Every structure is written in structure tokens, then in C-alpha cells.
Amino acid sequence: MPPSPLTTSSPPLKVADRVASGPSSEVRQIFQTALKRTGIISFANGSPYLGELPFHQLADDAHRIVTEFGSTALQYGASNGIPELRRHIVDLMAIEGVAADPEQVIVTAGSQQALGFAAHATINPGDVVFAESPSYAGAMAVFAAYEAEIVHVPGDRDGLIPAEFECLVRVAWAAGKLPRMLYTVPNFQNPGGMNLSAERRILLGRICQEQGLLLFEDNPYGLLGFDGATMRAIQPDAPDITFYFGSFSKMFAPGLRLGWLLAPEALHQPLTDIAQTAALNPSVFNQLLLTAYLDGPSWRDTLARYRGLYRAKLEALVGALTEHMPAGTTWDLPAGGFYLWVTVPQGIDTHELVHEAIERGVAYVPGTAIYTNGAGRSELRLSFCLPSVEEIRDGAAILGRLFSEALA
Amino acid sequence: MPPSPLTTSSPPLKVADRVASGPSSEVRQIFQTALKRTGIISFANGSPYLGELPFHQLADDAHRIVTEFGSTALQYGASNGIPELRRHIVDLMAIEGVAADPEQVIVTAGSQQALGFAAHATINPGDVVFAESPSYAGAMAVFAAYEAEIVHVPGDRDGLIPAEFECLVRVAWAAGKLPRMLYTVPNFQNPGGMNLSAERRILLGRICQEQGLLLFEDNPYGLLGFDGATMRAIQPDAPDITFYFGSFSKMFAPGLRLGWLLAPEALHQPLTDIAQTAALNPSVFNQLLLTAYLDGPSWRDTLARYRGLYRAKLEALVGALTEHMPAGTTWDLPAGGFYLWVTVPQGIDTHELVHEAIERGVAYVPGTAIYTNGAGRSELRLSFCLPSVEEIRDGAAILGRLFSEALA
């Protein structure tokens, strides 16, 4: 008698191993609860504020694209994306010192999808993936879905510490494990907000090369420094081992679902094949709309306005937290990006309190939803880009009262 | 000395196993060659003809969506899609007897992506996947990417033969393998064009249940029967084991990249989690645009016009093939869908001749690109929906001359 596919435990569906314990399930619950309730102030979702976008221009572009190029825009397209958009992407990466040919770029339906493609190509079950401590929950979920073992590397204000990383790699080799890859968000990191220093970028690339690791450089926030300054990417100094991931979701809009991947040259064709097999191609219509936006003169000004706006929102958040949070609450001020990573005094359990916070009308991401090892009960991530300054002030006051009560 | 991640063969990157031998690489090459050459008549790509779409209405819809709902349309959204579109999907599936709640539907960026999500959840390396003979190359590539062993089941005019399937499942169990799933395209199958009979649908569902297999029911063409008739899906008679896949790429337009997945209820939440991890969410903008199209009164009429148009194109193709192809060339006439599956006389090698065909201005898919075992040198797939009637006649004449010369 053969086993029923949905009830037997031997041999199991992969789903049992690969989904249940994903670190993002808690985040997902919080997001969904927050989304379903009207009037909630959400510091949880890493969503950009879209109010500065030139909607009328975008609407006209969309109209024109469907009218003039409908038969192309609404048809299948190339797996790696349209050439016009790939050229813009090359120009964007050049700002950070990445020299690429448009033929090397693979456009994807968001950089999250690109992470999945690269993970599918490179991670065998049991491989060790190193990441900042804490790191982006959505990427950790991808690596968990491919059954990687995730090791968090200690860091400080300048990002993860190369000597600690090298030590942990050696420990993994010595334990008979396979250290496969370092995952890092070098700019305005999610959720920690820190920037990886220039020296450490070079050093980490070198360690990966010496130790036989790949390097995943995930860079959704690089152009969102408040002062407009950018740093040199890791990729130029370690091109043979680096997968560079870019996104239009934070600097433009997530609704088109467009990001990209620059793979090591030796893996470009296999990755294109994986993209083809997994998704056929990203939406041509959306690519044309994004290309029209990047062709126009306004996107740099719009981005500059966002930088100023996000800085003002962070200042409002920090001001309100200073006023309302219990003594002993700390954070490191980020120089850009979307997130403030806050540590609260002992006695406050951010994991336990998130539900009460939502009851009172404020959502955040507790540290436990970001670490993969149960840590994080004294930490929380606050996303400051989407809510208005007024909502930020109100939300911080509500959180301050809640945490003060919990401490009392 | 640790190994270099890109050169060592032990332990290898997954990419080495999972991409190189995918059956779609040959198709991909043909498509790309065909796409790059102007003026080529392509019977290769499974692309719909878009010329009947109401582009002005779609352009107006796109303009209105960005203007009125830009902050929603261009933002992140729910992993399983917007409720309005999920309600339309439920109505579409009801035409084929599927009774689902909109909450059970997962909208994806194309049904190809949905196939990947379901494969990720269910296939362990070495699991046996059964499929029609021949079957859709893109799905075979997905299953190969998850290291399934693919077994093709013999079929006839009424689709795959249940007794043969049951026998092959028993053989697999007896050999100590794990028969995991039956993949079928029951309506106007790709590439064979046949319809699975009503009796066989019920029987195959029952065999899968008895033998402990899942069933993947892939249905991009169900509404594209030339006479507008539809058949009852398999899902209603085997809901606990069936993944139902739907697509808007053939009945509307591929450029929005929208399809869907209806999973067995017990696996709905894990599949939603997989979708979230792999892609976050499908484009809200595209979902709103599709919803506006389905809200309107015209899509049924448009679809009816396509049915007539595609029937006329198939008639033109068959007429021209009858006139030009060597004696002994055979095919079964499909009652809908996109494909004519042609068998040519011994002495003609469709695999060898495809390059010369492209040289002469015509692309097709040789059978070898569809089978996973090297078979198919006497077969080819001709897609008749995209080229014009005139191109179809010209293309068939060129192919007829080429094959006749090869035979001589």
C-alpha cells in the first residue's frame, strides 16, 4: 500500500523541511495583521513612500506604451530583460564602480526573485551561508528554503568584522562543513542600518576568494544615502565570485516588481537558464515603463527629494523616541536607507509585546523575526519611510508608553 | 587550501547538476535565434497573437490606474494577489467545474512561476515525475531543476493511457523509487494537441490517489477550444492531491506575467509562504490592469474572436502542409490550443534540419527539444497562433521543400 502524499512522514514532501521554520513567517504575520487593520501606523513594512512619484507622467508613459507598443509590451520577451533597461542598470551600477556589459545583466521580477535564482544555483543542503548579525529576514528565508545553515557574523558600526568572519569560516571548514557564501547588505543595511567600511569591503572579498566562498552583495539602498554619497561596491574587487543584486523597489517603486542580478561571468549563462526555467521572463510592459522613467530627466530630482524626505522622517522618529522611550533605549543612527534598529532595556520583550502594540495601533518587527536562532527579544526594527511625520510621532509615543509600562 | 567555488568539482555548485541538461536549452536556442533575425517566420514560440486586444481600452485603464491608485498599484502587495483578481480567477475555474474560494487562490507572475513553487514544495531529488509523451518542455525543465526523474507515459488521441500510467507507477515502486507526481496538460496539450477524455481524467485522479501520487493539472489552453466548449477539470474529482495551474498568457497576454495556482487545501499556506519567500508578491499594477480587463464587457467577445482566428490559422497551416509536405507526413488535428504536432517520414531528421530551416527563414521546435530521452527526430511542433495566414502558407511551403529535399 503506497503512502498518501500528504500524510506520510516518510519520505516527506520537501515542503515540510523547507518552509515551516523560515524566519520570515513571523514577519509575514505581523505584516498581514498590520495590512488588514485600517488606521494602523506601520513601522513594520519596508515600503517606500510613493507620494513624490510623478504619477501623471507615469500614467502618460503607460498609456503611450500600450498604445504604441502594445504588441511588444504585452508579449513574451527575452529571459534576461530588454536591452534598454539593462543599459540603464549598467549606468546605475557604474555610480558604485561596477563595470558591466548590458549583456551580463539579468533583469528579474524583483531582487528577491534574483536571490532565489542565485540560491538555487549555488546552495546544496547543509552548505553554510554567512550573514550579518542581524540580517535581512527575506534573504534568510530564501537560504533556509534551500536548506542552508545560516551563521551570523558579529559586526559593529562599520558592518561585519572580517576577522570574526574568517574565524567562523575556518571553524566551519574544520567541522567538515561547506562554507558556501557570504551574504551582505553593505549599504544602509537591513535591519541594522550600518554601512560596511571601504576597507572591510575589500578585505571581505579577499577572504571569500581565499577561502573558496561566493559573495552575495545585496544592494537595494545604495542610492538612498541622505547626503547622496555612494560607496564603491564589493563586486569590482571580487568580480569572479560576486553575485550583485539590485532593486528598483526602494529607489523607485515595488509595484513593477523589477530588480536585477549581475552574476560572475562563468555563471551568467546558467543563471539566465534558471531565470528562463523559473519565470520565462520579467514583464516587458513593466520594463518599458521603468525604462521610460529612467529615460526622463526627473528621476534624479525625485530621488534627491526622497533622500531629504527620508532624512526628515528619521529625524522625527529619533526625536519622538528620545522623548518617549524608556531610559536605556539605544540605536545607531543610519546615514540612509529605510531602517532604525533599536535596542531596548532588559525587561522589555519586543517579541511578546508586538501583539499588544498592534492592538494599540502600531506595528514593528521584533528582533526575533530577524535572527534565526531565537535571539532578538531586546531589539526591534522600525521602518521610517512610509508613515508620515505625524504618524511617526504618534506611533513612537504609543510604543514609548507601551514599553515603559512593560518595564514598570 | 579550500577549493575555488567556481572550479572545484567536489562538492559542486548545484548549478552543474540542475541546469546543464535541461530539455529546454535547445528550445531556448531556437527561440533566441528566431527572435534575433528579422523577417523570420516562427512556428517555434508558443506566443499568442495580440492584434485583437483592445489596446486603447487597456491604455486608458493603465492611465486611470496609475493616476487614481498609483500609491497602491506601485506599492508592495499581498503574496497571494489582490482579492478582485482572485475572484475573477474563481469564476474562470468554475467554467470547468472547479469550486474554489478566492482565499485559496495564489496569483503568481505567470503559471511557469507557479510550477516552480509547487515543484520546490514537493519534489525531492530522485522522485519520479510522470508526464505525457511528449510533454511541455518548460515544465520538464522545472522538474529537472529539482532533480526529478521524468518518465513519459504512452498516450493516444484521448491523452495518456491510464493502464500504462498505473503500470509504470508500479514499476517505479517496485524499483524502490518514489513516484511523486503526474504532470498533465489535459486540454489541447502542449505539444501534442490532444484532449484527455472525461473518463481518463477521473481514472487518472483515482490512480494517483490510490498510488499516493500528487497530480499537477496545467491548464493554459482550456478556454481556447475552437468551438468554445470546455471540459470538466480533474481537480474537482481529486481536490486533495491536485495542484491546478492557470495562465492569462494564452487567453489574454503574456506581457503582464500573471497566472495562478490552486493548491490542495493542506498545502495552501506553505505554498503561499514559498511564493512570499521566492518573489514577495506579483505586480499589483499588472493585477489591477488585468482586473479592469476582466471587469469589462469585452473579454469574452475578444476570446471568441481569437478562437475563430486560431481555427482559421490552423486550417491554413494544415492546408499548406497537405500541399507541400512529403507523402507520409502525419498529424492529429487539435480541437483548440496553439500547436500542431507533426510526424515526418523516416529519412527526415527534424533535429538536424532546424538550423537549415532557420537559414531559409522558418523556425520550428524539433521533437528532440521536447523529449528528455533523445527521441523526437521524426517529430516537430508547429505553433500556429502568432504568424499571419500568409506567413503560415509561406512557412509551410519552405518547410515542405526543405523536408522533400532531405528525403530525396
What report would you give on this structure?
Two copies of one chain form a homodimer. The first copy, chain A, has 408 residues and is an alpha/beta fold. Chain A has two domains: 14-52 and 301-407, Aspartate Aminotransferase, domain 1 (Alpha-Beta Complex), CATH 3.90.1150; 55-295, Aspartate Aminotransferase, domain 2 (3-Layer(aba) Sandwich), CATH 3.40.640. Chain A has helices at residues 14-18, 24-36, 55-73, 83-94, 111-122, 137-145, 162-174, 198-211, 268-279, 284-295, 299-324, 350-359, 389-407, and strands spanning 41-42, 105-108, 128-132, 149-153, 155-156, 159-160, 179-184, 214-219, 242-247, 259-262, 330-331, 339-343, 362-363, 365-366, 379-383. Chain A has a seven-stranded mixed beta sheet with strand order 2-10-9-8-7-3-4, sandwiched between helices. The longest helix of chain A has 26 residues, at 299-324.
